[in-house]
Each structure stands twice: as C-alpha cells, then as structure tokens.
Design a protein that fits this description.
globular; 12 strands; 3 helices; single chain; twelve-stranded mixed beta sheet; mainly beta
Amino acid sequence: MRNLVVGIFASMMLFSGNAQVKKPDTIAVAIFDRMSDVIGEMSSISFTLQIRDDEMNQDLGMITRFTESRVNFNGPNQMQIHSYGDKGHRGFWFSGESLVCYSFEENNYTIIDSPSNTLDMINEVNDKYGIDFPAADFFSPTFTDDVLSNFDELKYVGMRTISNKECFYIIAKRDDMIVQLWIANDALNLPVKMLIMEIGGKVTEQYEVTFSNWDINPFLPDAMFKFQTPPKAKKISILPRK
C-alpha cells in the first residue's frame, strides 16, 4: 500500500533466496500488479487471517498449529490485531511510537520501541525479537518484483474456486520452495489463500494462510490503536534474539 503501509508480521522470510524468474508469465505479473495497485489506493483495511502451520516436533512428529487473527490497519502508522491460537489470546497495538504486545491469559504486556511507520516497525521487531507477522509480502508495494527476484518460475495455472469464490491460481517455484497463490477474480483482486510448501529432507512442511471478511476503508477510530493497561497487568521485558 502506498497510503496504507501494511505488513502483517514479516512472513517467515518467504522471499529469501538467490533465484530469479528468467521468463515471467505475463498474466501472473499483470494479476499481481493489479492486486498491488488496488491495495495501494486503500487508506484503511480490516480482515480475518487464518493460519495453519505444520511443524516437526522431536517427540510427536509432524504437528499442526492453528491461529486466527482479526487485523486492522489505518494509514501508515496504526495497527491493531487480536490473535487466537496455541499461544492463547494475544493483542498487538501500534500507534506510531511503540508496539505493545499483551497476553490476555497471563495478564502481562511488553512495550517495544520502534520506528514510526508500520512497515519499518514490523521489519525491525522481526529482526530483533523474532516476532512474526505472516503474509506481509502480499501487502508490500514491491510484491511483484520480490517474487520475480526470488523464484525460478512463476506461472498462471488457470481459474480455481475456493469457498464459492472464483480465483486466479498462480504458482511460484524454486529449488527449496513451492508457493501457491489464489487471488480473487472480482473488482478488487484481493488475496484469498496462500500455501507454502518447503521442500527438503524427508518431510515437506506446509504453511497455509487464508484471508476472509475484508472490510475496505472502514472508519477506525484512533482510540482502538492505543493500548489501555488492564487492571493488575504486569509489565515484562523482552530480550532481543542473538
């Protein structure tokens, strides 16, 4: 987004690698550019994000974790998220000065100093503390260029239907990863689903993100992006990762 600088928790280094698409599929590129143009015109947005994450556990083998979040962004420097999953109910507030992370179950919170805009905040928090905000790449204004720079192949496969919604189905590949993308075939061309398959070893791990309940340019009051300390909540520290 140009007006709405969005990142939803820098996504597991999706676009890292040394590949490059030599002959990009012009249809896929046009779909990505159209999606980015639409998102770039938005001033605020709310949506639901559902995540399914396969993970190899030393004792249990392959396990699957589920998370659902309601995400709200307003302008270049306001973010508010409620997330429900294995780590319980967590909240995140950002209003241009610092990021507040709060655990509803444990009634504790931490405050992280950060840059003044959402995208820079997300990148810095991820680098320093390892806090992930999945699927951020969809909302980057350089999304198309990032894909072309970091994958060997990009192909528009055709139309597919997901949850009664017709979608453009696009696949990006490189040696260690396959990414499948579904983009809505409607007036807005917003993302519907992303499936990442990490290739290597004996087991293929999968990471799935589903978008729903989009609300475009809603009125989001400033107060909802400011954290109000709950009664008896304990402030805790978080250490940077090495």
